[in-house]
Design a protein that fits this description.
Elements: H1 2-19, H2 28-45, H3 49-68, H4 98-113, H5 117-134, H6 136-157, H7 162-165, H8 225-249, H9 257-264, E1 272-275, E2 278-281, H10 287-301, H11 306-334, H12 339-346, H13 366-382, E3 388-390, E4 401-403, H14 406-419, H15 425-445
Antiparallel strand pairs: 1-2, 3-4
Helix pairs in contact: 2-3, 2-4, 2-10, 2-11, 3-4, 3-6, 3-10, 3-11, 4-5, 4-6, 5-6, 9-14, 10-11, 10-13, 11-13, 11-15, 13-14, 13-15, 14-15
Length: about 450
Amino acid sequence: MKYKLYTIAAVCLLFISCGKHEKIVVSASDFRAAVDTVSEIMIHDIFSPPVASRIYAYPNIAAYEVIAQNSKTYASLQGQLNGLDSIPILDSKAGVNQKLAAIIAHMEVSKQLIFSEDALEKFRDSLYKKWEGENSKEFEVSKEYGLKVAERIKKWMGKDNYKQTRTLPKFSVFASQPGRWQPTPPAYMDGVEPHWGEIRTMVLDSASQFKPTPAIPFSLDKKSAYFKEVMEIYNISLKISEGLKKSEESKSNPVPEESKVAVFWDCNPYVTVSQGHMMFAKKKNTPDAHWIGITKIACVKTNADFEKTVYAYTKTSIGIFESFISCWDEKYKSNMVRPETVINQNIDENWKPLLQTPPFPEYTSGHSVVSTCSAALLTTIFGDNFAFVDDSEIPFGLPTRKFSSFKAAAKEAANSRMYGGIHYRAAVENGVVQGQNIGDFIISKLKMVK
């Protein structure tokens, strides 16, 4: 009799345990994996840096809006970002797993922004299968809410003027006018995203809100401020070249530090390599991806929880997005010629910069603007003097570099453009001021932490 009772009890317990589903566990590493997947696809698809900033910003905002609902720590961006309102209300009694819904929203918005949708769908479907197997009811209700938020973000995104800029004319080049930008070797590409300054800003009042100091007027007078800047880049390049030559001749001579810095921060997705009659692209990080990578490093080092991780990615990506709009607005207004063109036509026809010149006007330096703004925002999240090892470029065959703070990394990134021979000092220094102004404004205006 006792045996039968024990058997019945065991069966009942088994039935109860089988009918009871545990809550789906979603970690910060899961969200980082979702962002990493988008980064890998973005690099594969070869998006320009400005477009890459859009690919990061909107999905992160979608995820952030999910975790901000009913949060005691984080405030919604409704009414804070230009044109963003009406985020679907979250019923706290609906049983939604907000972390799960946040990743779903992120993936859904990302899918609309990339070309290789199948790669993202493969990643998404593997997660869906896992989550559905763990708790189908929780998965379905969370998915439903995540998709609702994603749809709202996509509608908002669709009104940022991106589609309209796809139909606008290419940038006109007037090679006969001295000082104006011209396509550069080896690919001689058209100017990239000449209308990016017309994209709707998220926080800034306008693309020209923090217009930098005007570029130094073009002049070939050897006593002019402009020509002195040209010669500075030329002489820096010669010094680095001599150092590289010596290091090749003897291992006792180290590779010049300026060369290491320039190559580490290159982040040019347009680098082309010629082999015989063939020319192909060499895939690299964009500046956006590099700073998103640094955000990941900071999150991992501090063991940031899921919500703080989403917050960090979102705040940083908003700053990157605004920086590119502001910088590109200036680039195509000042329309400054690159050092490579000036030096080849007037000083040394055989000269080549250490780095391949990117295909857009020179002033201001995008790296300077984006890096300075990103560093300012990350400092508000993780603190000043945040030492870290930057391993973002390891997948591209480069070693790590150590930094004492985000600001130190941004300073090095800015200076790298002079070492690489692709920017004048004024573009770097005024770009730093431009980026700091953008960062300070975002810090003062966005209230993300309650």
